[in-house]
Amino acid sequence: MIRSRRLTLPLLNAWLVSQAIASSHPRYRLRVWRENRAELVAIREELLSYINEAHEDARRRIRRGFEDDLSPFNDPVVDPAANYPALLHRITLQGYLGETLAALAVEHWGAHGHTDWIVPAFLFRLHDQEFQHLEAINERLLAGETYDPDQMAERRPGRTGDDGLAFRINGENTITDILTLEAKCLAQNSNAKIEEAHQKLAAGTNRPSGVRELINILEEYDTPEAQACQEALLKLWREGYRIATRHDGIGYTCGRVPTQPGRVAWMPTDAPHPVYTVTRKLEGMEFQFEDLITIINALYREI
Length: 303
Fold this sequence. Notes:
Strands 1-2-6-5-4-3 form a six-stranded mixed β-sheet. By secondary structure, the chain is of the alpha/beta class. 37% of the residues lie in helices and 16% in strands. The chain has helices at 9-15, 40-63, 90-109, 128-142, 191-202, 209-218, 224-238, 292-301, and strands at residues 16-19, 28-35, 164-169, 175-186, 245-254, 282-288.
């Protein structure tokens, strides 16, 4: 583990309010949280710390090779990670927020009947297109050029691969359960994106590609916690995936709240989407906001 931050649960519950949804499907459950904007101010500083920690590994990778005791990174002029991720395109930040909320939900509210899930690290460090973009952004700013991060020309492709992975690890440091997370974060609802998320998870194997990526990330950390987690992931990668139980989860964040009478959620409530043809258990996690742009600004742009 290279992460440890958690949020104060009563503050989180006051900001993201759970909506009642009944379902009797044996392999599918949908949970919905709706933002109470008035409660954001109370939890905002904790959220900023949680998000900052989530991105710290990516900053570490950007800075690798530039360390110099004579030029500390508290000077933005010499920090190669300056303005990360705040000045990336809003669509990129939406993607990061969606992945963060999915992991946040699993860590604080549990999933698939368990509350002891571990998310060792986020996979933001693999977004190489944006790291290259960041270098160009900082050069332009140092040259005194004006810069609008949300111009269409500043948009970059999203990162491929797993959006997030969570694990349950027993007392013998063996992974017993894998939870693969697919995240979507949109200003408007998109049924096509909901279908795409179900389709991607259905195509997944019992050994997600993100396991290898997490092993490589943890290799760079020498704490006992990181080394133990890497050891558990190595056992999973070699043979453990054959006996570990894989579960799936969709984190769907939308900047609109359903207004149709009787409708609580954008995602299917009674059963997974028909394209989800596998027999694994699937957890739907939906986050509804009135105005996603304001949330992006408050959590990424106003830091």
